Amino acid sequence: MNVKGAISLGPYLQSPTTSSINILFWTDTISKPIIKIGRQPQKWEKQYVTITNSFVFNIKINNLLENTTYYYGIYINNQLVAGGDSLHYFNTFVKTGQLTNFSVWALGDFGKGTEEQRRAKIAFERYNSTHTTAFWLWLGDNAYHSGTVEEFRNKVFDRYYGYDSIMRFLPFLPTPGNHDYLSLLHYGGNKESLGAYYSLVNVYQQGEAGGVASKTEKYYSYNYGQVHFISLNSECWSYSVWGNMRMKNWLKKDLAANQQLFTVVYFHQPPYSKGSHDSDTFWELFMKAMRKRIAPVLEEYGVDLVVCGHSHVYERSFLIKGHYGKSTSFNPKKMLVSKSFGDVSKGDMPYVKFTNGKNANLGTIYATCGVGGRPEPLPDFGHPVMAVQAAGEGTEGSLILSFEQNKLSGKYLKGDGTFGDQFTLIKYTKAGKQKKKKVAEK
Ligand SMILES: [Fe+2]
Q1: Are 135 and 171 in contact (CB under 8 A)?
Q2: Cα(325) to centroid of ligand 1, in Å?
Q3: Model-level pTM?
Q4: C-beta of residue 100 within 8 angstroms of C-beta of residue 18
Q5: How many angstroms does the Cα of residue 235 sit away from the middle of ligand 1?
Q6: What is the C-alpha to C-alpha distance for residues 135 and 115, in angstroms, rounded to an integer?
Q7: Looking at residue 124, what is its pLDDT?
Q8: Residue 185 maps to a domain
């Protein structure tokens, strides 16, 4: 929309909490917008006036009710320039610890400006028309080839290839990829200022939605209902490979304090893959670092699911533990927690974890979903930890994570609208299991 005084990028939503959200947008000309919100479109209850004239806006809407839908409109010079209809709204978060049913959309390696990107998006839009999605995970490599402002504008915020129609109602909780750092390969140092990623996103730094404050936008955590989410950064060499252990130390503190029933961790470069990136290859130092240095911490604290991108295929592991070497060192007898393929739609047993007892929180599922933009072929051999692998033409898509009370389901939603994988993990307390057994014996 290139009308004078109109919105030139966005609006989009960031950092939702139980009582607040940030609405971000850019304008064509310098202006001083007003945002109005209400529980019905154009029945405004509050307004937020920007303090200074600018082109770029990041406005925090606060003092909201939890788990509530609000509509919004953006006004410049008393003219409605965006929103004010049923398509522009947001939902505040469900409070920490409350058992609830919700879904999250995870999309990786998407900002390519391809028809495959568009098909994966449309498949989600169709799915979402009959489901409710709470928010959206970016799995990194969000804008190709270098994460510039123009690439974000043309391939991510764009209407045709991008997600203009989704961003207006679905907040995204991102992680950066190597392509968001202006380079295919990068070699450490302070990456704050490279690329457009950090100027576009606004993520929690002070534990605003739960979790331990990370005090940086590079990695962070938050809670929604019974689930704890952690966005890690696999891209900063200094955080993953060399001696600066700031992210790992924060991660340990955050996981130690976490009381949530489920924990989902996401970052860009997967610990295990035999797709367009092979985690066994000697130059894949970031993948190796996440596998050797971060995966042991995640498993020690019982993380349930790890979701990554980077490899332009779909891969989903068995429930595993303790595999931190090359694929040839995988020992199923020691490292496979369950032999089930975990796809209940195909008659497999679901994965089960217990929250306490001898084997409390044992095992983690690893999924790679780097097919949001353009899938690539899979080499002839797969990774032994993987229960499901898909690659090549027609495999573009995304991952829907659904939580129903004590059940986690992952659904690989392909561009044609079908599901290529549906895995399930159920959490029981040990006491709950015994009680169930007693009832069965009666
Ligand atoms: Fe990547």
Answers
A1: yes
A2: 21
A3: 0.94
A4: no
A5: 9
A6: 24
A7: 98
A8: yes
Task: Judge if 44 and 112 occupy the same domain.
Answer: no
pLDDT at 240: 53
Verify that 242 and 365 share a domain, yes or no.
yes
Six-digit token string for 300: 């020690």
Tens of pLDDT, residue by residue over 22-67, are 999 999 999 999 999 999 999 999 999 988 888 999 999 999 999 9
Contacts of 265 (CB under 8 A, 6+ apart): 229, 230, 232, 298, 303, 305, 306, 307
- Give the chain's mean pLDDT: 91
Please give the distance, rounded to the nearest whole angstrom, from the Cα atom of residue 9 to the centre of ligand 1. Answer: 25
The boundaries of the domain holding residue 133 are 101-435
What's the whole-number mean pLDDT along residues 282-288? Answer: 90
- Asked if the structure places residue 442 within a domain, the reply is no
Which tops the pLDDT comparison, 321 or 435? 321
Q: Note whether 191 and 85 are same-domain residues.
A: no
Neighbours of ion ligand 1 (CB under 5 A): 141, 177-178, 310
State how far the Cα of 71 lies from the Cα of 28, in Å rounded to an integer.
23
